[in-house]
Structures are given as structure tokens and as C-alpha cells.
Amino acid sequence: MFSQNAPKREGGGFGDASAAPEVVRRSRYPTRLSVYADPPDLEVSIEEFEAFALDRLQVLRSIEDAQLRAKGEEDIRKRVNEALEKHLPLHTNRSKLPPRQLVAERRKDHVSHFILRLAFSRTEELRGWFLRYECALLKHRFKEADIAEKQELLAAAKLKLEHLSPAARETRLGNASLFYPPQEQLFEVDFERVLDLVSHLQVVLQGGRAFVPQSEVATLLLHEFRQRLTRALAVCAKALPQMGEDERLLPVLQNLSSQTARSEYQSTGAAGAVSADNVDALSSGFPLCMQHLHTQLLKDHHLRHGGRMQFGLFLKGIGLGLQEALVYWRRAFGNMTDDQFQKGYAYNIRHNYGMEGKRADYTPYSCHRIIMSNPPGPGDHHGCPFRHFSTDRLRAALHRDRLTDAEVREIAELAGAGHYQVACTRHLEVKMQHRKAQQQQTSDTETHISSIASPNQFFDLCIGDCKSNGSKQSHDRDVQPVAPTAAASLPPAGLQKGPAYSYS
């Protein structure tokens, strides 16, 4: 599907914009909108392959963020349009742009959809995320389209709609026809195709058939698109194992799917020099996952391997050096002898810092890795609280972090809906707002943070905010150790592309 040095085939040697409609209609992409029925049959360079996909991924993440954060439909519309214009523009045939650019935009849209379709077919969770926001993107574009574009898209979708003639309308519906405007076209379909309209009492039902007005035909389009894309993702999932031998393609696809949580975070070093002595004092700036691990370590004087890896690499990322890490963990594991510690744990700590074994310099876990891999079992404390805690346990943990009932309810609802990183981001925003209130600072706007992608990003933002909004005294007063509590009372930095496909 791609080559290292593929020519950029964007429609040929098109001339001025005045010839756009005719020239574009004779091109590979005559219409602006697509339901992606057929895969691209063209060459794409590996650079375009990744760049196109990352831009589309930015758009899908922007839609997710807008749906969760925007204040009303118009705000969502504005945010999504801004993301599309920046990353994935699609201009109409009536625009004054050269035909070459119009075709290039549509080529990028077409190719990027199929790249992400392949990348996000690996797991049920990834398929669900991609399906949700591709449908949202199509719905948005359909609403923004003019009448001619809508008709072109419906024709391309081949929905097989059964039009109801005026005579059949009177015969079939009788007085129920008054439910619809008299001049509006009606289509007769199986009610399963428009369950959303049925649940909102927006159509007349008769014998298992629904009568859908022209104004609601978008529901039929989205239902069909969802069904087809669901089947296509299942086919892609079965095909992925056959691609394991392609050393170029597979790493790119794995990189893309991992970036639902965005790429590897680079710490800002907000805490400065971190020693074994001040880890506890910094713990209220930890995200909930690291607060939990820290609390359990203080309580049990031990963590199992998954917890040690997650917490140890996090501490490394905030600035705890190797020698201080050895001191910290030796103190924390106070119930064992020096010999037991050296034989059982010191080697692994040095290994994480690249001083043993293959001497790899391991990086802190990203949110995506914590959420998607190695779920905690009995006796484990690693993982993401927003993903792996029960609702009651999550609420209790948030209450202990001094959040209000309304804030806890909002964050728990986000987590319950599967928006784990957005819930974590909202947790940080609330903590920052509380700090401003304690310091009697006023602001005309709410704290807004781009979606958290790494526990270390959470920490840097939290500690950085603390330092910038208060003196040394207020910082010391606000940042206190988290008291150990019993477990009984208690799982996407911007997108980046680079030459190496090795992301956490």
C-alpha cells in the first residue's frame, strides 16, 4: 500500500481554480464526503502513511474532547471545525482552491481512514473507540454539508431506501400521516435501523416497520455506516496476524493505536532534585494511580512486581536518581534484611536505570500502557484507578483527595463511561482549582488541561502549578504526605511522529 519513494499522485497537472468542478469530477475523488466503501488503490509513501494517520487521529481525539468538555452543540461544532481545518480540511468543489489541492485533501481523508481502520482493529476496545468517533466525524460532516453533498453521499452509501408514495402514505398510515409535515418525503425501513429515532418517539411504527422522514435520513446513514465499519474492523482484525512479517508496516500501526493515549511524555523536571527524603512530601502531587501505590507501599512495606515497576519508573521520571532510589526502596521495604533486599530487589532497581542486563534506559509507563496491559489481580496495586477500581472504591479515593460530592460524581461518571484519561485530567483540573481557591486567587475561566497521557505529565503540571501560584511556604503547606490507609477502605503531551516507532 505504500512505498519509500512513492510519487505524490494528487490528480495530475491541474490548472487554475476556475476549472475545479469539471476537473475534480473527472478525478479519483469527485465528491467531497465519503463512506469509505472501497480501500485506496494507490501508492503512499511511508512518510505520508504516518503523517496522514496522525492528523486524522488528532481530529478524532478533538471530537472526543469536544463532546466531553464543550458547552452545548454550537461549542462542539466550533471545536470540531477548528480541528478539521487544522488537520484534515475538506473544501467543496465551489471553493476557489486549485483542483490539485481539493483532490489531495480527499486523498488524505480517504487514505487516513483506512490506515486507522487497520491500526485500531487489534482489540475490541480500540475498535470501539475508533468506531465511535468515526461515526461522530461522519455525522458532523453530514450536518455541515449542503443539500447537493448530502444527496451525493446518500447515493454513494447505497442505503436501499423504500420511498413511500403519497398514495401509499395515505393507505399505510391513515391519520398517523399527520405526524409528519405533509410535503416531507417518507422512507419505510425496518425499525432496527432507526432505534435511536424509535426510542425518542420521532417516527411512526407499524408492523415492525418505521416511517422515516427525509429530515432524519442521517440516522439511516449512520446506522449503515456503523454496521459496515463494524464488519470491516472484524475483517481487519483477522488479517493483522498475516502482516507480522512486514517490518515497515506493523511498527507504524502499533504506534498509531498506542497513541490514543498520545506519545511518550518527556518530563519537565518540575520538582527539581528529588531525594529519598522528599518523595513523601511530593506525594499529594501524584496522580491517583501513584497515590494508591505510594499509600500501599507505606502500609504494607512491599509492592508486587507490577506495582514496583509502575511506581519505580514513575519516581525515576520525576527525578529520583539511582542511588536515591536504592535508599528510598530500602527504607520502604523495612521488614526485610539488607541481604534480602540486595538479592531480591536491588538488581531490578538498577536494571530499570539501565545499569544491569541489556542496560536499556527504561521510561515511565504511559497512561495507555497502564490502562491497556497487565490488569491487576488479587494482591496487586498497579493499574489505573479510573479503569480498574470499582465505582465505590474510586469515589472513596477521590473523597480522600478532598474533592466535593459533585466533583466526585462528575469524575466517576467519566470513568464509568470509559473516558479514563479524561477523568484523570478532570481530577487534576479540580486539584488546581482547589489550590487557587485556598490561595484566594480569582480567575475568569476554569482550569483547562489537554488530556493527560502520562502519570509524570500529571505530576509535572500539578507541581508546576503549585510552584507558580504560591510561595515556598504555601507549597510546603499544601504538599503533604498521603497518610497510609487500608486497601479495603479504599486503570491521550501532543501527538508526535518520529523516526523510531518505540513508544511506551
TrEMBL record:
It comes from the Eukaryota. CDD domains: PriL_PriS_Eukaryotic. It comes from Coemansia spiralis. GO terms for cellular component: alpha DNA polymerase:primase complex. DNA primase is the polymerase that synthesizes small RNA primers for the Okazaki fragments made during discontinuous DNA replication. Belongs to the eukaryotic-type primase large subunit family. Keywords: 4Fe-4S, DNA replication, DNA-binding, Hydrolase, Iron, Iron-sulfur, Metal-binding, Primosome. Binds 1 [4Fe-4S] cluster. Residues 1-21, 470-504 are annotated as: Disordered. This is DNA primase large subunit. The keyword Iron-sulfur applies. [4Fe-4S] cluster binds at C289, C367, C384, C424. The gene is PRI2. GO terms for molecular function: 4 iron, 4 sulfur cluster binding; DNA binding; hydrolase activity; metal ion binding. Its cofactor is [4Fe-4S] cluster. InterPro entries: DNA_primase_C (IPR058560), DNA_primase_lsu_euk (IPR016558), DNA_primase_lsu_euk/arc (IPR007238). Coiled coil: none annotated. GO terms for biological process: DNA replication initiation; DNA replication, synthesis of primer. Residues 284-459 form the DNA primase large subunit C-terminal domain.
